[in-house]
């Protein structure tokens, strides 16, 4: 895809997207979605500089500075937040073909403080699986239909892992497509630390998706062609990006051009789960 001659059409805010428009949108996304952690930002950003911080991050910093000027003990607010009873969940999401699963797996392999959610195995516990499925309590069931993810599997996995390892705090990492991320927003009892994994160019999405299709990783229905499947997936990518931009869920954005650099950024973002 190149220039105005081949836009991606889909309903919504990205109804006609060219590579130039896409790049501008992502630049705006990065500018706006700076980390929304006032207690970490305030010590390193001056009061006057806070006026230049965009979006909700700047507003939060100005409110915090105003409260501090009025004599409010910010440490008490931070202590209250730490004792609110919510379970911290590290949510990593993004469109297909961004490499987010590779980054999540590297984090799990390199840092024992992070664990996967607990899944319900249909073979090992068929009764529970059927009960949860009938009640519509699964957030997600994998493509095989064997493993299901429920709310309890997200909120309780960290505690179960901590009990066996000297009480070290654990945090569950959820590797989520956009549909699962939408459901995670509504999970009561969870405090989400969100990271959006993306790319800065639709051509890169198209190239990676073509590779997946040609390698057989993406099945082609009998009534479709590789090209129609590719077009459909590109349209879905655009819809997913729209959610990432407007949802307000993601404090961090990583454009995954280099795996090593992106992994460093992911570890930096993950550290906020313990602050």
Give a quick rundown of the structure.
This protein has helices at residues 19-32, 38-41, 47-50, 55-69, 74-82, 100-110, 126-134, 151-155, 157-163, 178-184, 202-214, 226-246, 259-270; strands spanning 8-9, 16-17, 87-93, 114-115, 120-121, 138-141, 147-150, 171-176, 190-198, 250-255.
Outline the structure in words.
The protein has 275 residues and is of the alpha/beta class. It is 48% helix and 16% strand. The chain contains 13 helices and ten strands. The protein has helices at 19-32, 38-41, 47-50, 55-69, 74-82, 100-110, 126-134, 151-155, 157-163, 178-184, 202-214, 226-246, 259-270, and strands at residues 8-9, 16-17, 87-93, 114-115, 120-121, 138-141, 147-150, 171-176, 190-198, 250-255. The strands form three sheets. It has a five-stranded parallel β-sheet, with helices on both faces. The longest helix has 21 residues, at 226-246. The chain is globular and about 65 Å long. The chain starts with 7 loop residues before the first strand and ends in a 5-residue tail after the last helix. Residues 1-7, 27-50 and 52-59 have low confidence and may be disordered.
Shape: globular
How large is the radius of gyration? Answer: 21 Å
SSE order, one letter for each helix or strand: EEHHHHHEHEEHEEHHEHEHHEH
Task: Give the biggest sheet.
Answer: 5 strands, parallel
Task: Report the sheet-strand fraction.
Answer: 15-25%
How would you state the average pLDDT, rounded? 80
Count of individual beta strands: 10
Helix/strand-derived category reads: alpha/beta
Helix content: 40-55%
């Amino acid at each position: 895809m190149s220039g105005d001659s081949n836009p991606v059409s889909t309903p919504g805010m990205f109804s006609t997207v060219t590579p130039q428009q896409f790049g501008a949108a992502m630049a705006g996304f990065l500018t706006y979605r700076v980390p929304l952690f006032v207690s970490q930002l305030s010590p390193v950003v001056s009061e006057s500089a806070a006026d230049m911080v965009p979006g909700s991050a700047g507003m939060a910093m100005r409110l915090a500075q105003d409260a501090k000027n009025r004599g409010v003990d910010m440490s008490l607010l931070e202590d209250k937040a730490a004792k609110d009873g919510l379970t911290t969940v590290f949510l990593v999401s993004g469109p297909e073909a961004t490499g987010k699963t590779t980054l999540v797996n590297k984090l799990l392999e390199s840092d024992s403080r992070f664990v996967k959610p607990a899944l319900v195995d249909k073979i090992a516990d068929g009764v529970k699986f059927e009960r949860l499925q009938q009640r519509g309590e699964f957030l997600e069931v994998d493509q095989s239909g064997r493993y299901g993810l429920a709310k309890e599997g997200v909120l309780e996995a960290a505690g179960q892992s901590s009990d066996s390892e000297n009480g070290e705090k654990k945090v569950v990492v959820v590797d989520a497509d956009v549909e699962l991320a939408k459901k995670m927003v509504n999970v009561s009892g969870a405090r989400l630390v969100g990271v959006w994994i993306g790319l800065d160019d639709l051509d890169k999405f198209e190239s990676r998706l073509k590779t997946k299709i040609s390698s057989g990783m993406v099945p082609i229905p009998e009534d479709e062609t590789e090209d129609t499947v590719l077009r459909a997936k590109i349209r879905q990518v655009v819809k997913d990006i729209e959610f990432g931009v407007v949802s307000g869920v993601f404090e961090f954005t990583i454009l995954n051009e280099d795996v090593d650099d992106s992994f460093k950024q992911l570890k930096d973002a993950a550290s906020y789960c313990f602050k």
